[in-house]
Protein 1
Amino acid sequence: MAHAQFFEEYEPGSGRKTIGRTITESDIVLHAGQTGDFYPHHMDAEWCKTQPFGQRIAHGTLIFSIGVGLTASAINPHAMSYGYDRLRFVKPVFIGDTIHTLVTVKEKRRDPRRPSHGIVVEMYEVRNQHDETVLVCEHLLLVEYGRLKSAADSSPQ
Amino acid sequence: MAHAQFFEEYEPGSGRKTIGRTITESDIVLHAGQTGDFYPHHMDAEWCKTQPFGQRIAHGTLIFSIGVGLTASAINPHAMSYGYDRLRFVKPVFIGDTIHTLVTVKEKRRDPRRPSHGIVVEMYEVRNQHDETVLVCEHLLLVEYGRLKSAADSSPQ
Amino acid sequence: MAHAQFFEEYEPGSGRKTIGRTITESDIVLHAGQTGDFYPHHMDAEWCKTQPFGQRIAHGTLIFSIGVGLTASAINPHAMSYGYDRLRFVKPVFIGDTIHTLVTVKEKRRDPRRPSHGIVVEMYEVRNQHDETVLVCEHLLLVEYGRLKSAADSSPQ
Amino acid sequence: MAHAQFFEEYEPGSGRKTIGRTITESDIVLHAGQTGDFYPHHMDAEWCKTQPFGQRIAHGTLIFSIGVGLTASAINPHAMSYGYDRLRFVKPVFIGDTIHTLVTVKEKRRDPRRPSHGIVVEMYEVRNQHDETVLVCEHLLLVEYGRLKSAADSSPQ
Amino acid sequence: MAHAQFFEEYEPGSGRKTIGRTITESDIVLHAGQTGDFYPHHMDAEWCKTQPFGQRIAHGTLIFSIGVGLTASAINPHAMSYGYDRLRFVKPVFIGDTIHTLVTVKEKRRDPRRPSHGIVVEMYEVRNQHDETVLVCEHLLLVEYGRLKSAADSSPQ
Amino acid sequence: MAHAQFFEEYEPGSGRKTIGRTITESDIVLHAGQTGDFYPHHMDAEWCKTQPFGQRIAHGTLIFSIGVGLTASAINPHAMSYGYDRLRFVKPVFIGDTIHTLVTVKEKRRDPRRPSHGIVVEMYEVRNQHDETVLVCEHLLLVEYGRLKSAADSSPQ
């Protein structure tokens, strides 16, 4: 389950696609329970019938949490997530929709405050079963440089 | 539970503080179960003892979801959340920490694509029991203008 | 989220209506899991087909818990719940039904044992999407008198 | 798991004691999630330290639901629960307390509206590990008369 | 809820049938969350449409856990479960299927390592609403001999 | 997340070790809720104090489900689980213990009923933080032969 990768090894443009996950009524009920957000958009099927979208929609934080969680299949011990930029809820997700996440290395840059690490920006696109994008965000990763690590590894202890 | 507010009524600099919530081991277990992120940082107390932080830490998406959920006490029917910017995980949250969210209206701007709505940027700061900031982000709200609404309300149907 | 109210401020006949909540199969499964009540009325769809109601019904304690929970939107720091009277399960609630609670101040009386507090009786009516009453009960609140509180507040410390 | 009992067979004064159950932090977190009641009395350990009880307390509806659930070990096909009277929260229940329920047949009476059934009133006392009563209520059961049933059973079909 | 039974009292060939339980989408979501098994067979309705079984199937460990759990209605203080043999997943269980468990005493034998106990082998068959067997296993119970117990009970303390 | 492997590629004696997972009170509460097994061994801390093991222990089916779930990190599209043999609960698992699973290919054999598949027997050993074995079982996998598959792949369509 570990997949070690140094900063130098991230290639802009490369990517991967996660497995899929059907968003169920249970997920919405559990997320309301976890967050305390019981807004009628998520929890009141009758009220939703009177709204433009016509049915209950998943919480934005649920789709974000699951969309990110889907990418958590391999741990990179040299990387640390430190934030997200430009998180947008592009389309609603309904009960029964199936989502997956596309991860693409968007860019790499130096970390101005840490010479030992670089910043990798991964583009996350969460898509539904119609291949429509429902959520996007940029994931910021702090990743160790391999040359320093290698140097350290070969130094006498 | 509804608190109607038009774009004109948001005042930059004004703010509110939510109630608090203790982050429990249950929250982490449930969030791992919801997202599928069972990384040892959250789920393996033995491994965590060997790490700099020394104990299990809450998922970033959990603190984001609860931090946002804490603000969900009053629905504004004229507003719609459409995203977040500059989400950063500033400090780890441990089992037993108690967090609350500070919401401050940071700025207001026109929506270039929609004359009927403006954009309100709310600053969210999630703090722990030592009043240390653990997570920050900017919440983007699309809010209806009242003058248009009022005009529409007074027009003959 | 706090809404301070002294005994004197409760007005018999006044009331409020909560937001709605759709009762899902998940709620029943989670409530069975929380309480240990796995009776076939709630958990065995096949057996239920052979019964007069024809389908699974929600636990009485679930509808009571959610019906009461829906009223928990504003904390009154001067009040304390101490019990319920005449709790009745009037009609079954099925999976997919949407309930809300009507709260009405039914009566106020002195607390014979505590001169500083009075008893407020709130009528709770839980209704479904057809506006049929499914559960009723009387909620007993112990509420502080404002005059005493005010007197205490103005006294030298 | 079935224990058939007709109205005639309930003996006032007879009783039983359920198995015990430790109330955990998880139970409180799950009940908050199920009901939407995230009041700081249950969810904010820091705030609770400043209160007379000094720590988080279980929701009243949680103790009621579990206290009742503990009695659900044997289904009586001739009985139907239709309500509760005089439900009182006598003492707070803290995380780690272990409760059980004492069930005693308190009284029996005719159902004025139904000649085929009688009303059995069971006293429920929920007690903690110090044998202190934490919750009481009277459970109202509608129970079929056996003589009528027996007559029906022996009649030609 | 206790049903004491010594080794001598188990009769090969005798059996019982548990109550039924409908397997819901919630059960699968919760079990994935508990175990971390988010394989598309259980969680991706779209992918399942492309497979021979055409729809999501319950985890084998879920059906085993619930099938065993259904038998847990009466505690025998003289018995201890120490394992299972020949656990087989005979047919898939789909969302909405209702299962129950048939327990039959298959055989009894001496425990070569413990003169005070014997081994009882119970056959568990989990069946669905069409009375098709979906899972089988043999449950191994270590059960105390009554004669020894009785002798001990009558000995001076 | 997919790791395709044909029957020929399984090597007896080879193995892997999963990541670890701390068993929490939440896991036990959730498993009781999922299975309906609320036996005092798992749920009554007070009663457990009077027993030889002195504290609550995890359900056998919980440790089996999580122990198996830990191995579910890579899907082999050519393999199908069809059962388990010799499942034994070797030692109790307590709240706070951290478990992982060792998977070793124990043996391979022909499937007498299916020429296209062979049977792979994997030994699962679930160990705690003291490297003590708490549960063992043999996992039976039905795995496709690669030569047949390869032949099929190269045949004209």
Protein 2
Amino acid sequence: MSATASDADRHRSTIFDRRNVEFLLWEQPAFAAQAGDRETLSAMLDAAEDLVESHASADAVADAHEPTWDPETNIVSIPDETRAFLDAQREGGFTLLGADVEDGGLGLSLTASTAVNSIISCGFTSGLGGFYALTHCAANLIKAHGTTEQKDTYVRPLVEGKYGGTMALSEAQSGSSLSDLKAKARHVSGDEYRLSGSKMWTSGFDHDCFDNIIHLVLAKIEGDDTPQGNRGISLFIVPKVLPDGSPNDVALNGLNHKMGQRALPNSYWSMEDGCVGYLVGGAKHAGLMQMFTMMNDMRVAVGLHAACCGVRGFQESLAYAKERIQGSALGSKTQVPIIEHADVRRQLLAQKALSEGALHLCFFAASLVDDSKTNEEAATLLEVLIPVVKAWPSEWALEANKWAIQVLGGYGYTRDYPVERLYRDNRLNMIHEGTNGIQALDLLGRKAVMKDGAATRALATAMMTDVHMNAETLPDLAADLGEAVERYGTTTALLGKELSQNPARALANAHEYLNMVGHTVVAWLWLREAAAASKKLPSATGADVPFYEGKVATARYFFRHELAKTRAQAELLGSLETSALDVRPGHF
Amino acid sequence: MSATASDADRHRSTIFDRRNVEFLLWEQPAFAAQAGDRETLSAMLDAAEDLVESHASADAVADAHEPTWDPETNIVSIPDETRAFLDAQREGGFTLLGADVEDGGLGLSLTASTAVNSIISCGFTSGLGGFYALTHCAANLIKAHGTTEQKDTYVRPLVEGKYGGTMALSEAQSGSSLSDLKAKARHVSGDEYRLSGSKMWTSGFDHDCFDNIIHLVLAKIEGDDTPQGNRGISLFIVPKVLPDGSPNDVALNGLNHKMGQRALPNSYWSMEDGCVGYLVGGAKHAGLMQMFTMMNDMRVAVGLHAACCGVRGFQESLAYAKERIQGSALGSKTQVPIIEHADVRRQLLAQKALSEGALHLCFFAASLVDDSKTNEEAATLLEVLIPVVKAWPSEWALEANKWAIQVLGGYGYTRDYPVERLYRDNRLNMIHEGTNGIQALDLLGRKAVMKDGAATRALATAMMTDVHMNAETLPDLAADLGEAVERYGTTTALLGKELSQNPARALANAHEYLNMVGHTVVAWLWLREAAAASKKLPSATGADVPFYEGKVATARYFFRHELAKTRAQAELLGSLETSALDVRPGHF
């Protein structure tokens, strides 16, 4: 494989679009700085392609053979293909991407590791990527908040993929509302506690792919000084195997049977009285704060998974549409590939616009995570974009997956093709890591108005910079985006004012507000893509010509078919419509 | 059970909403005439409820245990629960609903049988209803077009459910484009032929639930006088067991593994050289015309299945939202059922608006099928509405199912609740019986402009009648619908003109046109519901008060959140935007 994708490489895969990743990384000014050395990153992208291609069947196998648990032997069975994929991921060094060099990691920026993971995510949507994503998150949490001893014990084996990690937040009665959790911790000595209670929705809780599995568990410390609600939650390290080699007192109670993302076992389990946990950093009642430092990364990861489900479906249905012969053009009797039918092209355009837009959004958020370490404006922008990055791709790349099935017709509805699985796998993303409803409340109720609306202004200013820059070269797109940004500003101001007077009324259509912001932001990113493509077109040759033309065409499609929706959204929001607030349970 | 649903009955089921069915039947002026005797129909609705409740587990079982085929024994295995359900359907007389009295049927109008089937469809979305739906269709086809001998041999056993029926249209290379089919028929004598070729996507092709299975097969007669394309297609009766008791020469080659609707085995199979078929009615090259007489019923049936998936998901998620305790109201610490959260109510409102609107649309189409037998205006209205009835519910009640999962959160993503299955079952409806893309071409390219636009005018006139009737009582809704009807008229006129000059350009956004028409028509039906409810409210008591209030509130929601979308749609269509037409395969 060449260090940069050559023309001939374009679309040789039906799984990912390397050319598009290269376009984002090196032809979008926003990302080059954080992407690092091009040759190094390209080599890793090549390796990611190899990983995808050499384990191409793992996803379908994992979907068809979901993990099973035998209560007699207490063994969770996982297909060999899953195990082989995890080994390959570890041996290929993919667990090391974002980890610090001092911990044995490669120290990649989130931008760069997002690029690599975007290739891998396209190849493995069924939850296979979740094993190490959670492990990476656990390592980062302990690294950021653990005591020296906790770091020394756990970070490196997690980074190296010898240990696995899980996040055990939810309980059966406490999913969206963490303050209702009931797990208890009783102090023993130092950072050591005994935990009891039950957890729900824990991904990767038990299996034999790792030497040890480190659960990060939220619980409330017993005692008078524990505050009520969210501020009384603490975070514990609960290893499957204790440091002395003995098993911890945790018990798997069963697996959840999911619609999709079936590679990753999802468990409910309990901590018995002898369950040992170590308070992260020895810091009481700091659990939610500690978790929240990971939230941005986790939400980018969910958005990325959603976007990649969309990209994969687009690539699969594109390949099908080019090969499948059926019907003829209007007024002709010659059979043609179905891509010649306008409605099939619309279905492909919709997928390209939504999923590549979503992917760009995730790259952008990742670059803001990187930039925010040194740049306050980036940090502010990131804050307001995070709920959008989690929610928008999970709703709109799912819509793209709907169209991927449609391109394939009856075949798309069968398990002989991956598109029906993508639709199932992607459906989880609207739910986990904070439902989209919660993201919308976070966006409108907190982020839009925080610091007197500073984040809203920062986002509007950033978008208007591109409006002005492209006013002459892409006047139609620039004008449309300018109007949309104006609507965004006035709508947010109006809702912000209402928030201080009647918050329930202001928030009644928060979901629509998030959609409006998402559509506006993604239109902005498409304007950036169209601008970059237009600039390159005059000197482009070979396959780059249709590539850049396609980018401009898709941007126009997005503006006319999608951005146009923001007018009705702004009108609805501006009218402070309250159907959802007014309707009573008895009315249903 | 009482003959009419009493107040206390409301929402005792999480599967269907009997009260809403009664509201449509007896409180919507459009339907009472075709619904027939209320007491008789109510007894059948009661029986349908009993069927649903007594076989409540059959759907989930059929989904978890899809049919399997053993090539060694050639046996297709079907769960006992499916067999028991089919027996109960037959013994309960449900196969007789729409069949003529002279054939042993009950002679119900399509309106009445749609009402009964709407209860059953809510209970069985996994394809269980497909066995007899196809059988009913086969009986009707033979009854309408068969020779006297064919009718005498096949109609009654099909009506009585002793025989099953299938529709064998598609082939692997010929799904949407029937003119490309390759199955051949060679004349023997009289109406007897020998058929050869392969068929794809045949539902219910083989299993042992019936004494015989009668396939209605499209094929082309060998010979010089067979016209090219669609006009050269003939329809044959191909029984599994021949009249002399010997097996016909048909061979199952395999089952398709579907994402949903798994109860009904979907097969690919072939006709060997000795395969006997009987030309329907002895009429050569009349196959498509004969099939098309069933098309309206079949498309109403698809729309109804989609609508019922939506209704079921709404009822399931409503029950969950009332019981599930989590989180607190803004500014409070008391835990509440999640239905108290505005965004959950929005998700329920969206489902109610979309799925009950879709159901009303199907009832309306069914009544037009009935009325069209004696009323030309109804026939014209039906023509233009049929593609909308097939396509709109399959896209928008699917959207409702998306929200049903969301209300249940993580639980909704598991197979412990039916909502994830509804989402999978419903996804087929955009594809079969003519993809939604084909429906859109039919609507805009044919129906909208046929008879110089007579159907468009008839629909607009019918809608405007309700606009005028409600101008004083529901002025906001009437005004909004009036504007939407105006947009519908001008947009259709503009596209109609373009059709004669540049058909490709006119049809480039046909999908959006269908959505616009569907949203406008469903808004109209919601206006009718709001009008009926408003009229009843002053004298209503008990549970009827919130029921009627809920109808008015949901109508308002639909107008503000959904009908509002038609402005952007009309603008897009009016601009003759051509992204989908202009984009070239290389641009992707």
